[in-house]
Design a protein that fits this description.
- The complex is a heterodimer.
- Chain A is mainly α.
- Helices cover 37% and strands 8% of the residues of chain A.
- In chain A, strands 2-3 form a two-stranded antiparallel sheet.
- The relative contact order of chain A is 0.06.
- By secondary structure, chain B is of the alpha/beta class.
- Chain B is built from 15 helices and twelve strands.
- Chain B has helices spanning 3-12, 17-35, 45-57, 100-107, 150-157, 174-180, 214-224, 259-273, 288-303, 316-319, 322-337, 344-364, 386-391, 397-402, 430-440, and strands spanning 38-41, 69-73, 111-116, 163-168, 183-186, 206-211, 247-251, 277-281, 367-371, 383-385, 406-414, 417-424.
- Chain B has an eleven-stranded mixed β-sheet, with helices on both faces.
- Chain B starts with a helix and ends with a helix.
- The chains are: A mainly alpha, B alpha/beta.
- Strand 1 of chain A pairs antiparallel with strand 10 (383-385) of chain B, so a sheet runs across the interface.
């Protein structure tokens, strides 16, 4: 897909085109990686040191701000119901 | 003036924190309308500066960054400020807490000037895909500034702050630093806390500074690094001693970049070879993009499941732009196909292979150098293909895949467009990176 990279809304029909293009691209990418023979691994952390601490706690201000961010609030609860964002 | 010198001047009363803030606010007022860098300003900045000035006047102790002004990428949480990832999805979302890096800066008396523009949800390498309009390059406002930390690099280049924070998943700090002619550091994965970063791909993301010099980069990095109880991937790395001479691995970039960038790079290598031992090395650049995007699509899809429109913000699939949608759809396709190990498992194997290659190379050399970007910045609005856009990450994404530290420093200017030189080191060897970078910085 050749396009300008500036922001614009995406229509539903365009999403289907994106899906089929994405599938092709991913197949192409995976094919290129197909011949690598090595066991899966994880990132080594070198010589560093980590000692666990006490974790975290929230405060009243955090609670107040997050409640004001929520689309639907009822008394002491954030209503996370399906379709709530449309209201 | 370096950050170190400015802090000294503020503490000695030769400059006040208030004056520093006012100077930057004046520049922002003059230039922001054209460049579209700041999305939100901190209305408390002057008040906070006055408090620092008062502390100094009263002879009280102040922090290492007293009165220094910071621009923050709009995906790093700053309590009380809108952190919207340059997306309509999170428009109006006020952060309820400070990211650990922000807390560390505030503890040292830095002043957050405001939140800056970026590619939407950090999905992009040009700075054009913000839902609030593209960021413009201060060197030439017709050009892209690079991305995704477009506002962070532009704010530093436009002299709107002392330094900025960005995030780097596949080059998002180094790429705009290169395009804007400033210094961008992607620290070792796990050396700087990501707590409070609205993640793009959690195994690749890293927060880092964008500064005017390597010296400033080290100064800020020393403040923000270190283990955080709130990010289990972080740890303290031992500070390694500097060396008198480094053995430098020069990456073979034949056919992979703009001819002018290649020429500039080879000229710089020639200069460096007068003082340092040089060896040619081959990185697995041919599989960088493929590995990186398979990992990113999956992790981004996973990270965006929280934007369901129920708890905060709007539903991402309904309100995001093209590149964000592409990555979400791609990620969902990988997840569907993955039971056969079609995509993600291959990318994990490739990641292990890339890491092994770096281990082998770092047995032979201390540092690796290559250009930061394969192409010069294009004009805002130019049409390019998806693959062309992704190819922009070819030199930067390997450091993220392997979790290595990397820095971009200005290499030169081609037709009025800046471009950067990139240096890579082993995990936790930022000290070498910045020692060498400082010596060859021009």
């Amino acid at each position: 897909m050749v396009d300008s990279l500036t922001w614009r809304e995406v229509s539903d029909s365009e999403k289907e085109k994106i899906r089929s293009d994405a599938k092709k691209l991913l197949d192409e990418f995976s094919k290129k990686l197909g011949n690598i023979e090595i066991d899966e691994s994880y990132l080594e952390k070198g010589d560093g040191v980590r000692r666990e601490g006490v974790g975290w706690g929230s405060d009243e201000e955090f609670r107040k701000i997050m409640f004001s961010n929520a689309p639907l609030v009822e008394e002491d609860l954030i209503l996370a119901e399906k379709g709530g964002w449309k209201k | 003036m370096s950050i170190r010198q400015k802090v000294l001047d503020i503490k000695l009363g030769e400059l006040t924190a208030t004056q520093n803030v006012n100077d930057f606010l004046k520049t922002i007022d003059e230039k922001n309308k054209e460049l579209n860098i700041f999305l939100h300003l901190n209305s408390e900045a002057i008040k906070q500066a006055k408090e620092i000035d008062l502390k100094i006047k009263q002879g009280k102790e102040t922090g290492k960054l007293a009165g220094i002004c910071v621009a923050v990428k709009s995906n790093i949480s700053v309590k009380g400020l809108e952190t919207n990832c340059a997306s309509k999805v999170l428009e109006g979302y006020i952060s309820g807490y400070d990211a650990t890096v922000i807390k560390k800066l505030k503890d040292e008396d830095a002043i957050i000037l405001g939140m800056v523009n970026m590619d939407e949800f950090a999905c992009g390498g040009t700075g054009e895909s913000s839902a609030f309009g593209p960021t413009k390059n201060p060197i030439n406002s017709e050009l892209i500034p690079g991305g995704s930390s477009s506002g962070s690099a532009s704010a530093v280049a436009a002299k709107m702050c002392d330094f900025a924070l960005g995030s780097d998943t596949g080059g998002s700090i180094r790429n705009p630093a290169s395009h804007c002619g400033v210094v961008g550091l992607k620290p070792t994965y796990g050396s700087v806390s990501r707590y409070g970063l609205l993640d793009m791909a959690m195994s690749l993301d890293q927060i880092g500074p964008i500064t005017n010099s390597v010296e400033d980069s080290k100064f800020v990095f020393d403040v923000i690094k270190g283990q955080d109880d709130l990010d289990a991937t972080t740890q303290n790395y031992k500070e390694v001693s500097k060396k008198n001479k480094y053995k430098i691995g020069v990456v073979n970039i034949d056919e992979l970049c703009d001819k002018n960038i290649e020429k500039l790079f080879l000229d710089r290598v020639k200069k460096i070879s007068k003082d340092y031992e040089i060896t040619n090395v081959n990185l697995p650049l041919d599989i960088a993009i493929e590995t990186y995007y398979l990992l990113v699509y999956v992790e981004f899809f996973s990270s965006t499941r929280k934007y369901d429109g129920r708890r905060f913000g709007k539903k991402i699939e309904d309100f995001a732009g093209l590149e964000v949608i592409r990555r979400i759809i791609g990620g969902s396709e990988i997840t569907r196909a993955e039971h056969g190990g079609r995509h993600y498992q291959k990318a994990l194997k490739a990641r292990a292979y890339i890491k092994k290659k770096f281990d082998e190379i770092f047995k032979e050399v201390d540092l690796i150098i290559l250009p930061t970007v394969p192409a010069l910045p294009h004009k805002i609005g130019d049409k390019i293909s998806t693959k062309e856009m992704y190819a922009g990450d070819v030199f930067t994404s390997l450091a993220n895949i392997a979790g290595l530290p990397a820095i971009s420093i200005p290499m030169g200017i081609i037709d009025g467009k800046p471009t950067g030189l990139q240096i890579l080191a082993k995990h936790g060897y930022e000290n070498w990176l910045m020692d060498f970078g400082g010596k060859i910085e021009e």
